[in-house]
Fold this protein.
Amino acid sequence: MVKRILVALGGNAIKQADEKGSPEEQFRNCMITCKLLAEIVKSMEKNDGMIITHGNGPQIGNLMVQQEEARQIVPAQTMDIVGAMTQGQIGYMLQQALLNCLKDEGIETPVCVIVNQVQIDKNDPELLGKAASKPVGNFFTEEEAMAVKKEHPEYIFKKVKPVGEKAWRRTVPSPYPMANVEGAAIRKLVDAGFIVIASGGGGIPVIQDEHGRYKGVEAVVDKDLAGERLAEVCNANVFLILTDMEKVKLNFGKPNEQDVDKMTDTEAKKYLEEEHFILGSMEPKIKACIQFLESGGEKAIITSPDKTVEALEGKTGTLIYRN
Amino acid sequence: MVKRILVALGGNAIKQADEKGSPEEQFRNCMITCKLLAEIVKSMEKNDGMIITHGNGPQIGNLMVQQEEARQIVPAQTMDIVGAMTQGQIGYMLQQALLNCLKDEGIETPVCVIVNQVQIDKNDPELLGKAASKPVGNFFTEEEAMAVKKEHPEYIFKKVKPVGEKAWRRTVPSPYPMANVEGAAIRKLVDAGFIVIASGGGGIPVIQDEHGRYKGVEAVVDKDLAGERLAEVCNANVFLILTDMEKVKLNFGKPNEQDVDKMTDTEAKKYLEEEHFILGSMEPKIKACIQFLESGGEKAIITSPDKTVEALEGKTGTLIYRN
């Protein structure tokens, strides 16, 4: 039974892989997604709650390209700031689309967007040395990459494709989320009956210095791990992760590939150890689900957006539940 | 006596006119501004409230340039979306700076940012024909302007400088704000003790269609007029507008120019009619103050950021009060 649900939307909820990301395309996708979210709201009781988080990969990628292309004319902003921009952008589009879909259903629930920082450990291994594992922005030739690096010696570039000329990309750290900085405000709004969109793109990563002052970091926190932190703060009982697969798969991409209908957190941990899941893709989703259940959550569900309603009814998707 | 204050920050609170707007410059300016805001918070009682709004001219200008420069690679976003980006960007920077300044003062008041739509009338005269009065983005030569217009026939370009080659700019409508769409969420947070940053850049302008659905518009709402709407929703008793002048001036720029220490709303209206104030600059600020007082506000104050504390003590700035 859904009492309070956190929905984590994947990139395809806002921009399909084969699209460039025009305003029309993005608003159209948001409407498709928000129709489904409105269906969930419709099925809930008045005092239940919904919190929404979302990825920002394509949008931050496009903004990073724009920062770079116009560099000679206007100053490029750092990734924490660009991440904040995507929270405004995507938050606005989702908020408006959801308000409109709810209105179509005759539902008056208000929606709002919180610009949201996520605290990371300043000693997180991802921040040290060359560990940065998350590729962002343009593909470059080695020559181009080195030219940008000359201007920004702090950037890390890695060869991310084995072949092809434009095989280099900037990579940034992907540290672990410790706490949602604006958690109290979000909780207050959810308790008061607002649908809240927050922690977009995994939140804006910030560290605290020795005086307790926050400072932005050029990094990307995994949006499902950060969403799980938000689910905890809001005391959600259901954590729904929407991605591009109807069900989680074991032996992914192998001849003995196999759907998972349901599994316990203990089984999920075993599968993680056996490396069934792609790093940086399904793996953090499974980790987030386990963390959610261990912190008191009831049900974690992973499915594709078009199967949302059926998955909540237990008819499809992958259910992860406590032992 | 300040019980609940709405502070409207001008563009110079985030980017000085002689700066390009690098992340370092903008965070430095935010810290200077937020030290002053922390001073105000310090002087207030625990149950008082503060709401902050801000301009976004330089930031939306830079983002519009970036949209244009990278147009061949990634799709340019519409102005409503770009406005939402600036709310994320500036909201994040101000929020972080204010949290840090409050922490330095030992104050635990939480701060949050709401991505905020402002409703405008779909029949606003500024939206009709070629009325669009607000210049945005790059300066172009006539030839360049016409080239962009070929791609975007809906754009309006006007010659905004009497001389010089690059004298053309895109202009967009500057409609009147009717209502703050997320007002209820903001009010809830302010009542619960949060400092809320909202209505950035005058809010994201939206109209409602015949079915009540919201839709973004490429326009710029004046940030002080929109801020006044927010002050009403939050039941603020003081409206503080920070700009680049310590006091409002009569006969501005003329030999008989004269500071105003205080005036009633009736006097302010008379001066408006006598055209003492520059259109689109001091004029909407005075209008916003009159509207604030007429809707039940106690005091409107216009001054420069460095005079904030003295102005609140009645020692400088221009005070506008009810008859």
